[in-house]
Design brief:
This is Carboxypeptidase family protein. There is one protein chain. The chain is mainly beta. It has a single domain, classed as Sandwich (Immunoglobulin-like). The chain has one helix spanning 2-17; strands spanning 26-37, 50-51, 55-60, 68-70, 73-75, 81-86, 92-96, 100-108, 111-113, 125-128, 133-135, 138-145. Strands 3, 4, 5, 6, 8, 9 and 10 form a 7-stranded antiparallel sheet that branches. The longest helix has 16 residues, at 2-17. The chain is globular and about 45 Å long.
């Protein structure tokens, strides 16, 4: 019986260790890194990428007119930095935020990276609604070939 309890404790601690922090309102997701050949081929599955631990930067909603894009790396962001947080070793992050619209960037080699844009030119846009957690997975793919 004691061995079963110890085993259960180990399994439970592993399960909860990879979970992101629990929040009631904000954003959560995972950060992945993709490198090299990502072309689909028969018999070769292309995955989401390797989970990566990095910092996640949240700005007020930012358009391409409000920042300088250097191949996916952004500088001169003219909107306010709201907060930043760290993804864990499994790439998970969770950030409590007030209701609003935001742009999400991830740190890659000391630079801020983003690679999604909508029809309005909004960069990695996400909306936080009252008492809701919005999910956004982010992929650093600057060194991937498609």
């Amino acid at each position: 019986m004691k061995k079963i309890l110890v085993l259960y404790s180990i399994i439970a601690s592993c399960f909860f260790a990879w979970q992101p922090a629990q929040i009631k309102q904000g954003i959560s997701g995972r950060v992945y890194l993709k490198k090299g050949n990502q072309m689909p081929s028969p018999g070769i599955k292309i995955g989401e990428g390797k989970p990566v631990q990095t910092s996640v930067w949240i700005y007020n909603l930012t358009t391409t007119q409000q920042a300088t894009d250097n191949g996916g790396y952004f500088t001169n962001i003219q909107t306010a930095l709201v907060t930043k947080a760290q993804s864990n070793a499994d790439g998970y992050y969770a950030i409590a935020l007030p209701v609003g619209k935001y742009s999400v960037f991830v740190a890659d080699n000391g630079k801020l990276y983003a690679n999604r844009f909508n029809g309005k030119g909004e960069i990695n846009a996400i909306e936080v609604k009252k008492d809701s957690v919005s999910h956004l997975s982010l992929t650093i793919s600057v060194n991937a070939v498609y």
